[in-house]
Amino acid sequence: MKHESRYSVHPADAKKYDTQQLREQFLIEKIFEDEEICLTYSHEDRYITGGAKPVYNTLELQPIDPLKADYFLERRELGIVNVGGKGIVMADGDTYTLDFKEALYLGRGVKNVTFKSIDSSAPAAFYLNSTPAHKTFPTKKVTSEEAERVELGSPETSNHRIINKLLVNSVVDTCQLQMGMTELKSGSVWNTMPGHVHDRRMEVYFYFELPEDQAICHFMGQKEESRHIWMHNHQAVISPVWSMHSGAGTSSYTFIWGMAGENLDYDDMDKIAITDLR
Ligand SMILES: O=C(O)C(=O)C[C@H](O)C(=O)CO
Ligand SMILES: [Zn+2]
């Protein structure tokens, strides 16, 4: 297992960052590596973002050193979304088969978690988000059909998209983790526009289904001090509570959002008028 840590950043510091500093603090360039579990521990709400990509081997989720725990989920909950070929997650002896875009919630206290692919020529790619948890909630698999779906935007404003709420409180009980997947309609390129912030929750975006020769310009920062980070397929970006989080792609794409913090109210957002952006 590989891991790295990121500290929290004050917006007054972030506004002075150059491109390289912005990328070092907020961008997670490598989520997936063959036969590895790669994790990034952010001190923004102690959110862990990462990926497990088993090809031939079975990978075991182990407690990384910053947790000082006997096992990974001793004080945490975990959300998993498979963005690769069909794969299997084993949780304390129970088997969960996850197809492309299917999600699994594992609650606090699950001791043994392993990941494997069913077909090494189309390996699974398990995207992982984890947050501290005060209570145990049952494990639950969530398919796209079980997600709460919301249609937003329009072709005229290039932001026509479907929000699939996967691990949210209307679908599964969690302590603080919320995850979902937003799919852009063909021809639309803007996500989360008009934008928003939520002072009560931080958020991480993970982009996928983006052609390898295309890119996303992800916008962050306070609304009067916006900055951009160019991103590629299978990369993630950390959004502190003070930061807008919105992107425009050079093609359509899909992304997974994950959040944690003070509440589980998806709609608790302070909306930003497009004309107020600077
Ligand atoms: O396209 C969108 O709009 C989103 O997907 C918004 C995210 O769900 C979000 O930022 C939730 O806070
Ligand atoms: Zn948000």
TrEMBL record:
<dbReference type="InterPro" id="IPR011051">
    <property type="entry name" value="RmlC_Cupin_sf"/>
</dbReference>
<dbReference type="GO" id="GO:0045490">
    <property type="term" value="P:pectin catabolic process"/>
</dbReference>
<feature type="binding site">
    <location>
        <position position="203"/>
    </location>
    <ligand>
        <name>Zn(2+)</name>
    </ligand>
</feature>
<feature type="binding site">
    <location>
        <position position="198"/>
    </location>
    <ligand>
        <name>Zn(2+)</name>
    </ligand>
</feature>
<dbReference type="GO" id="GO:0042840">
    <property type="term" value="P:D-glucuronate catabolic process"/>
</dbReference>
<comment type="function">
    <text>Catalyzes the isomerization of 5-dehydro-4-deoxy-D-glucuronate to 3-deoxy-D-glycero-2,5-hexodiulosonate.</text>
</comment>
<dbReference type="InterPro" id="IPR027449">
    <property type="entry name" value="KduI_N"/>
</dbReference>
<dbReference type="InterPro" id="IPR021120">
    <property type="entry name" value="KduI/IolB_isomerase"/>
</dbReference>
<dbReference type="Pfam" id="PF04962">
    <property type="entry name" value="KduI"/>
</dbReference>
<keyword id="KW-0862">Zinc</keyword>
<keyword id="KW-0479">Metal-binding</keyword>
<dbReference type="InterPro" id="IPR014710">
    <property type="entry name" value="RmlC-like_jellyroll"/>
</dbReference>
<feature type="binding site">
    <location>
        <position position="245"/>
    </location>
    <ligand>
        <name>Zn(2+)</name>
    </ligand>
</feature>
<feature type="binding site">
    <location>
        <position position="196"/>
    </location>
    <ligand>
        <name>Zn(2+)</name>
    </ligand>
</feature>
<comment type="similarity">
    <text>Belongs to the KduI family.</text>
</comment>
<dbReference type="GO" id="GO:0019698">
    <property type="term" value="P:D-galacturonate catabolic process"/>
</dbReference>
<comment type="pathway">
    <text>Glycan metabolism; pectin degradation; 2-dehydro-3-deoxy-D-gluconate from pectin: step 4/5.</text>
</comment>
<keyword id="KW-0413">Isomerase</keyword>
<dbReference type="InterPro" id="IPR007045">
    <property type="entry name" value="KduI"/>
</dbReference>
<dbReference type="GO" id="GO:0008270">
    <property type="term" value="F:zinc ion binding"/>
</dbReference>
<protein>
    <recommendedName>
        <fullName>4-deoxy-L-threo-5-hexosulose-uronate ketol-isomerase</fullName>
        <ecNumber>5.3.1.17</ecNumber>
    </recommendedName>
</protein>
<dbReference type="GO" id="GO:0008697">
    <property type="term" value="F:4-deoxy-L-threo-5-hexosulose-uronate ketol-isomerase activity"/>
</dbReference>
